[in-house]
Inverse folding.
């Protein structure tokens, strides 16, 4: 896999900018951050990247790699002051922080997946995430720029996106979810904000609350009436939460490279 290159999404309007990297989730793309970028405080210098698991990727075989998170670690380690990550990217970022592969930096996780115990994964959980995988993409298509399309067309697009990710991509996602009970979250030393949608049909609100509860000093915010894409569904509130969290330390030192069932599951 070729090295991922970030792009400057929006320059800051101050002499001491805070460099923030925005990371989209599985089947997403950088445009998911459009609402936040349009509203964010002007002292933030915003960067993003088209990650290998982006929507309708031409296919460079990322799902067949044993460790797709390595490209994310290389990207984040390039010296950003803060990171905002959604969904699958949030999981890979959490793993890297728990393992000590990344230096601490102010971090926001939006709609992360997490279970505190291996016993939380039974056959009904696996069946749901496998057989209803397309429903997450249906939600994304409904709240994003494709919301203007007819329902039948969005359903077709969701299944096409699921098929494009394929079994290998799904396995990489679910493997990262299965690993979450074994992460040493007590070792995470970054300042952390976790945001979860109350009505998230993919990453349960309980997941985000439990994750924040396991990281020392982390903060959790439940977003009412939001699903898996709160940065689109509740753009004003999410942007304000993110900006206020980042503003608590407006001029941190530059970070060096990486350091040596709710709604859907069956009962």
């Amino acid at each position: 896999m070729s090295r991922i290159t970030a792009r400057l999404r929006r320059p800051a309007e101050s002499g001491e900018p805070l460099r923030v990297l925005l990371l989209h989730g599985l089947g997403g793309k950088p445009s998911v951050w459009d609402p936040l970028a349009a509203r964010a405080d002007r002292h933030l210098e915003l960067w993003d990247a088209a990650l290998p698991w982006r929507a309708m990727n031409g296919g460079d075989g990322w799902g067949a790699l044993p460790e797709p998170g390595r490209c994310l670690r290389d990207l984040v380690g390039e010296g950003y002051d803060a990171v905002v990550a959604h969904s699958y990217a949030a999981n890979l970022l959490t793993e890297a922080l728990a393992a000590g592969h990344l230096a601490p930096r102010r971090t926001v996780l939006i709609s992360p997946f997490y279970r505190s115990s291996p016993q939380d994964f039974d056959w009904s959980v696996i069946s749901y995430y496998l057989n209803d995988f397309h429903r997450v993409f249906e939600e994304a298509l409904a709240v994003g720029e494709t919301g203007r399309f007819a329902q039948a067309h969005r359903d077709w697009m969701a299944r096409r996106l699921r098929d494009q990710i394929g079994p290998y991509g799904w396995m990489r996602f679910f493997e990262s979810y299965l690993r979450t009970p074994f992460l040493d979250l007590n070792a995470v030393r970054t300042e952390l904000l976790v945001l979860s949608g109350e009505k998230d049909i993919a990453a349960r609100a309980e997941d985000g609350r439990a994750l924040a509860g396991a990281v020392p000093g982390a903060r959790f915010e439940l977003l009412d009436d939001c699903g898996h894409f709160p940065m689109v569904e509740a753009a004003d509130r999410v942007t304000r939460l993110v900006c206020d969290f980042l503003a608590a330390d407006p001029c941190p030192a530059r970070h060096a490279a990486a350091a040596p069932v709710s709604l859907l599951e069956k009962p």
